[in-house]
Amino acid sequence: MVLSFCDKAILAPMVRVGTLPMRLLALDYGADIVYCEELVDIKMLQCKRVVNEVLQTVDYVAPTERVIFQTCEKEKDRIVFQMGTADSERALAVAKFIENDVAAIDVNMGCPKEYSTKGGMGAALLSSPEKIEKILKTLVNGISKPVTCKIRILPTLEETVNLAKIIERTGVAAIAVHGRKKEERPQHPVHCDFIKAISEVVSIPVIANGGSQELIREYQDIEAFRSVTAASSVMVARAAMWNPSIFRKEGSLPLEDVMRDYIRHAVKYNNHYTNTKYCLCQMMRDQLESPLGRKLHGTQSTLDICEVFEMSSFYESCQLSQEARKASLNINNQENLEPDDDNEENHDRIQMPVKFERKDYLPQVTPKMFLLEWCRREKLPQPVYCTVQRTLDKFFRSVVTVNEKKYCSTLWDKSKKLAEQAAAIVCLRTLGLPEGKLGEEESILIQKRKRGNQDESADTTGPEEQVKKRLHNNEKFDDSKD
C-alpha cells in the first residue's frame, strides 16, 4: 500500500520525542502518519538491523549497542523515516537499508539547529538548491517507497515558491513546509501566507507545519490550520508533544491519563528511561514544580517512573512476560544470564521474582551483609556474585553461589548493586534465613537464642548486631560496594 499524504493529521519529526512509544501513542489517538526523529545518515550506516523477537520489533543497533531506531508492525504502513543528510549517495544507501521497514523516506531540510546544520544538513540545504535536487532525485529514482522533504520558508515569498517548484520537479510524493524562516523561533508568528502560496502553485500534497504555538490547541484547530494554509495535510509538533491526545476527534484526554498511556508503550518496548523521562517532562512542562513533577524529576529508572505513576504492577508483569517470551524462544545470546564458561542451563539455579527495595529493610544493613555473616558463621566460603548487563536497556541480573548452589532473581534491575542484593534475597529466603527486612526483628532474636542454646560460648549476636560490631571495629568487608 502506497502512503497517501492527502487529508492527514501527522505527528511531526521531533528530536528525542519521536521515538517508538510516542509514535504509537499518536497512532492510538488518531494520527494518520507519524515521523521519527531526524536520524543522521552516517550513524545509520554504522548500524546493524536486528529482529528483536522478544519485543517483536526491528531494531537498528549502533556499534555501541545503542538502539538508534526501533519500529514495529503496528506502524509499518504509516511511519516516515526522516533522514539528516547532505550527500546523495549516503542518503540512498540509508534509504535502501531501511525502506522495507518504513512507509516513506523524508529528508530534513528545515531544522535550524546546529547539530543538524553544522554538517550541511537541515536548514543549511536551503541555500543549495542544486544539492537538494540531486539528493531528492537520487532517492526518488533509487527506492520503491515514497520520498518527501521538509523545508522552512526562505527570506522572500518568491524564493520560497521557486524552491518548492524545484522540489516538485524531483518527483517527491509531498513537501512539508514549516512556515517560519530558519532564523525564526516558536515565538515568531507562523507565515500561513507562504504555505498557502506554495499550496496554490504545486500539484503535489503540501503539509502545513508550525501552528502549534499560536493556532493549534485542540483537534478542531488542526482542520482550521489546514484550511487557512490551503494545505493537503497538517503536521503537528509541539502541541502533540505537550499532549498527544490532540489527535483525538472526540477531544483531548486529561494529561495524567495520557502520560500513563505513554508509559505503557515505553515499558512494553523497553524504551530507555532517560528518553521516557524527557518526554514525560515535556508533557508536564507547566507542572514540573508540582508534587508529581518533583517526583518525576527524581526518578532514575523506568521502574522509578512506574512507581511515581502507581504502575509498578504493570512494569513487573511486562518484565515477567518478556522473560517468559525469551525462555519460550530459547534465545541464547548475551542478554541471557549465562555467566559460567560452560554455558550450563538455568535449571541448576534456584530463581524467584524479587527486587531489593531499600525502604523495606533495616537501616545500615542489607541482605548481602546478612548472607555474608551467615556464611562466615557456618564456616562456608563467602558468597560469589556473577553479574551480567543486557544491552537492550543496560539493566543487570546477578547469580550468587553459596555452598556450591546458585540463586538469582528472574527480574532485571537498574544497577549491579541492586541485582546482587536481589540474588542474596533469593538465597536467604530459600534457606529460610532472615534477610534484614523490616518486621523481622523478632525472627532474628529467635535465631540468636537458638544459636546461644547450641553453643553458649559462641558469639550470639544476631546478623544486624554482628554487622554493626564489625563496622564499629573497622573490619574490612567483601561486601564493601553497598
From TrEMBL:
Keywords: Flavoprotein, FMN, Oxidoreductase, RNA-binding, tRNA processing
Location of the DRBM domain: 366-433
Cross-referenced SMART domains: DSRM (SM00358)
Compositional bias per record (Basic and acidic residues), positions renumbered to this chain: 465-482
Cofactor: FMN
Coiled coil feature spans: none
Region: Disordered, residue numbers: 442-482
Entries under SUPFAM superfamilies matching the protein: dsRNA-binding domain-like, FMN-linked oxidoreductases
GO molecular function, a single term: tRNA binding
Cellular component, GO annotation: cytoplasm
PANTHER family: TRNA-DIHYDROURIDINE(20) SYNTHASE [NAD(P)+]-LIKE
Full protein name: DRBM domain-containing protein
